[in-house]
Input
Amino acid sequence: MWRFIGFRFLQAIPVILAVITVTFFLVRAAPGGPFDQEKAVSDQVRAALEARYQLDLPMHEQYFSYMSDLFRGDMGPSFFYPGRSVNELIIQGLPITAELGFYALLTALVIGCLAGVLAALKPNTAQDYVPMSVAMIGICMPSFLLGPLLVLIFGIWLDLLPVSGWGNSQGDKILPSITLGAMTAAYIARLSRSGMLEVLNQDYMRTARAKGLPEYVVVIKHALRGGLLPVVSYLGPAFAALLSGSFVVETVFQIPGLGRFYIQAAFNRDYTMILGTTVFLSTLIVIFNLLSDIVAAWLNPRLRYQFRK
Amino acid sequence: MTSESGSVEIINIALEMPKGTSLWKDGWHRLRQNKLAIHGFSYLLLLILICLVTPWIAPYGYEEQNLRLGAVPPSAEHWLGTDTFGRDMLTRILYGGRISLAVGFIATAVALIIGVTYGAIAGYAGGKIDNAMMRLVDIFYALPYMIFIILLMVVFGRNLLLLFLAIGAVEWLVMARIVRGQIQSLRQQEYVEAAISLGLSPLAIIFKHLMPNAIGPVIVYTTLTIPNVMLLEAFLSFLGLGIQPPQSSWGVLIAYGVETMEEYPWLLIFPGLALSTTLFALNFLGDGLRDALDPKASRD
Output
């Protein structure tokens, strides 16, 4: 197990380094400096600004200086918001995005697993078809369509829930969480259904039933652990999907989270902010993939045997 | 019994056996049993046909405005209503569909070409080359690709060609893995050894002897990649990072519809319906093809 964790950890480091390096040079290669889209500034002001943001140094020195700052946890000043650092902006947006992501994941896990398990217990009946058809709709209904439709129905026509904001009025967290979690819920439902179907056909299930265990014990104690394994492996990718989904959901519902900052930074050409957020989010995604792999290996010994030689 | 009479017997048995069916015939037969997949397939064919002939059948011109009319709900003259500039929505959805489908197919083709070539080389070469090539895929796979596409669109400007390449460049990874796995297992077979000993070049072996046998899963995954790519395009266009006006795609139309949905909900609902039904059809067809051509793959 430790060998497996160590191996995956070592694999994650070059990925993170690659992300930082590629992002850094991509952003530096972008046409047009961050200061020349507004009104023209004099050469002196320009030189002073470039010196302040270290843009006058040769490329490799900029890179190493950025890397050493980053290593100390400093992502530099924002190009767009004067006097504010990228760290500040990330710290400001992160709790909101984390809360949104948590509720969305919770919604997705509860609804997805419940639907998938129920469907697998009675395959090819209405109990299977109805949740799986809904799951298919969830997959084909992207968040930027589902969100506005929910707002239209529940926010405007029925006037039940607030249409935007986060934590300002009662119930305004419900629609964003459902919107963000819907597609993940649909994938989880499909994964848990196929996982459960496979496990329920195994011999040890028959043994468990032959022992005279009641059906709910058989399902909960024996089938769920194996059957929900694909869901655990999917949690890493699901986290990445939720993060990119939060770009849209935060834009639709006007939530001041990290995703909205990122999209705004993209439009404002706030290069340090883009760079900082990309590095931060990518590292987060890589770490989550790592964690989900470790949990999957812990649940399923077969996955880690390949590292015991 | 001499060995000669034995082999005659085997030939006789072989002659009496029912005629073998090809993978395609077998797959087509199985696909036809799946009503959802067939409906999806017909819907797509119809959609592609309509999009191809849009310039000749569209009821109004793409840029034709009628500012005095403004936004009107669906009526006999404008089946799907008009937008705030008085432009016919049916016409705009048809033209948007051309772009959405084009992105779906072309970007998938880019992913297909890169993925198949890369996977075939890795699988055929084996050993250290294969190992290095697949580790690279692992590293790319761990990258948060959505963030990278947004980054690419921001850095290099928003044009259609770049969109094809950027999406294709992230979608090839799974294809490479699938092809590599297929090629690797097929490589061990005797008929490939025979081909090698006959002195065929690796390229000829890969394309003439290995690829035809590995094509089932490739087709299945290609069909499932198209909806992903279309979703990605719509996502980027919705955020304003994909297709730029005056060009429009379903994602652009949805973004526009969201702004005015309170007063003119049909501007959101119809483009949304167009995108969702198409994704539905593609996913059902993909699932059906998987059951038909690649029975070993599990459904998830």
About this structure: The two ends of chain B are 53 Å apart (CA to CA). The CA atoms of residues 196 and 205 of chain B lie 8 Å apart. Chain B touches chain A through 44 residues (CB under 8 Å).
